[in-house]
Design a protein that fits this description.
heterodimer; A: about 110 residues; mainly beta; six-stranded mixed beta sheet; 11 strands; B: mainly beta; seven-stranded mixed beta sheet
C-alpha cells in the first residue's frame, strides 16, 4: 500500500520560478519527513528534512512546509535553477525506521 | 571520505542466473537497506538489516536474498526466481533503527539488465 502520495509526477518550471512539490501521508505515527534529490544514474541524496513539531524549515532556496492536521507536507524551491533539474522524493518514517518513499517528481527547470 | 560503495555500476544477467550486488559502507552505520527503483514507482524496500547476522524482508523480498556477516557489508543476490529483475538497485545505510532520524545515505546504485 502506498503510504506516501506525491504529486505532481513531473514539473516544468522556468528559471527563477518557484517549484512546488506536494506529499500526503496516512500514518500519523510518522515523525520524520525528509526530501531527497536524485540526479540521473546516481543515488538519492538527503536535501532537507522536518519533524512535525515545526510548520516550516528553510535551508537556502529550499523550504519544507508542514501541515500536521492535513497530513501534508511540501517542498518549495525558490529561484529555481537549471542545476535543480532532478527527481525529488519525499519520504516519511518513524525515527528513521521503515522509511516510506513517494513515487518521485521529475523537475525540469528551463533556462 | 565516508560513504557507501556499490558495485558494479552496470550488471547484465542471463536468464536463470543468480547475480550478487555488492554494498560496502564505511560510515559505521548499524542499519543497511536494499531498495529497487523502477520508473514511476519510487523506491521499494527489498531487505533491511539492523545488526550483523540479522535481516528482515521488506515489501518485495521474493526472488532476492541477502547476508550481513560484517557491519560494513550487505550484499544482495538476485536469484533466478526473480522474474523481472531489470531495475536500478540502491543500497542505503542509517546510524541505527529507532534512533534519531538522520536520514538514509544512499550508494550510487547498480543498474541490472536481463539479457
Amino acid at each position: 500500500q502506498q503510504q506516501v502520495k506525491q504529486s505532481p509526477q513531473s514539473l516544468i518550471v522556468q528559471k527563477g520560478g518557484i517549484s512546488i512539490i506536494n506529499c500526503a501521508y496516512e500514518n500519523t505515527a510518522f515523525d520524520y519527513f525528509p526530501w531527497y534529490q536524485q540526479f540521473p544514474g546516481k543515488g538519492p541524496a538527503l536535501l532537507i528534512a522536518i519533524r512535525p513539531d515545526v510548520s516550516e524549515k528553510k535551508e537556502g532556496r529550499f523550504t519544507i512546509s508542514f501541515n500536521k492536521s492535513a497530513k501534508q507536507f511540501s517542498l518549495h524551491i525558490m529561484d529555481s535553477q537549471p542545476g535543480d533539474s532532478a527527481t525529488y522524493f519525499c519520504a516519511a518514517s518513524m525515527w528513521g525506521y521503515d522509511m516510506r518513499f513517494g513515487a518521485g517528481t521529475r523537475l525540469t527547470v528551463k533556462p | 571520505d565516508g560513504g557507501i560503495t556499490q558495485s558494479p555500476k552496470y550488471l547484465f544477467r542471463k536468464e536463470g542466473q543468480n547475480v550478487t550486488l555488492s554494498c560496502e559502507q564505511n560510515l559505521n552505520h548499524d542499519a543497511m537497506y536494499w531498495y529497487r527503483q523502477d520508473p514511476g514507482q519510487g523506491l521499494r524496500l527489498i531487505y533491511y538489516s539492523q545488526i550483523v547476522n540479522d535481516f528482515q524482508k521488506g515489501d518485495i523480498a521474493e526472488g532476492y536474498s541477502v547476508s550481513r556477516e560484517k557491519k560494513e557489508s550487505f550484499p544482495l543476490t538476485v536469484t533466478s526466481a526473480q522474474k523481472n529483475p531489470t531495475a536500478f538497485y540502491l543500497c542505503a545505510s542509517s546510524p541505527s533503527q529507532g534512533g534519531p532520524g538522520y536520514g538514509y545515505t544512499f550508494g550510487s546504485g547498480t543498474r541490472l539488465t536481463v539479457v
